[in-house]
Amino acid sequence: MRAGDWRATLAPELGGSVLSLDWRGQPVFRPTPDGASDILETACFPLVPYPNRIADGRFVFEGSSVHLPVLDRFAPHALHGEGWRRSWTVERQSAETVVMTLDWGGDPDGWPWPWFARQSVSLSSEGLQIGLSVTNTGEDTMPAGLGLHPYFHRCPDSRLTLPAEAVWMTDARQIPERLAQAAEVVDWSNGVDLADAPFVDHAYAGWSGKAFLNGGGRCVTLTADAAARWSQVYMPVEADFCCVEPVTHRPDAHNAPPGEDHGLIGLEPGRTLSLTIMIGAVSSS
């Protein structure tokens, strides 16, 4: 795909993923290695029908107990839904837009509710836009959430700004246990040099829907619509990437206590949940 100063490559057959995103010949997303077959080596992929972890792959929804299969590498928790581990079908494509779909029929030994997802990836002179949606195609209300998992290219002088009100502190099993001031992990609101940042893998709540990654003579911008009130920040120390993941609910929202504003919704039959993000860039030199 190409438009203006932007170039991107996609792999619908590999979890509906983006393999690369470049601006003016320089990587915005971490490039996928040639020949890679592991979705976790790609540049961005969709999270549907839920993002992040579900503790022990178990939860109860409207009186029904659900036990999800768990991948060995992420045991004992279920992670990121089903869409990232399936081949997507190209519905429509051009030099600037690719629309792909995934039809999940339900699995009695896994996610039991049927759903239909659509992902539209488009380039313009302004940057990359990704729209992701999930529609409940079954006869019962299902729990639903969405997210996108971009791996941003990290420069030696990269600085992240991400305004958010709070952060979910996690237990030893990486499951949220309490909401705290952002500074208990890292407060990105006024910008933090990534070279000085500790390891982070936390969900930020009350997110403004905007993030800015300055470095390498440019400012990369991420804008998410109002559906993404949480952002999962994954920041390995000394890695060549950082992740800012717009999501519609916090991790393990399926097991949240009653009354909590966790973001997980009950999606009624025939209804659709949508999420849209935009990636842009401007020169800062």
Automatic annotation (TrEMBL):
* A UniProt-annotated Pfam family: Aldose_epim
In which domain of life is the source organism classified?
A: Bacteria
Q: What is this protein called?
A: Aldose 1-epimerase
Give the lineage.
Bacteria, Pseudomonadati, Pseudomonadota, Alphaproteobacteria, Caulobacterales
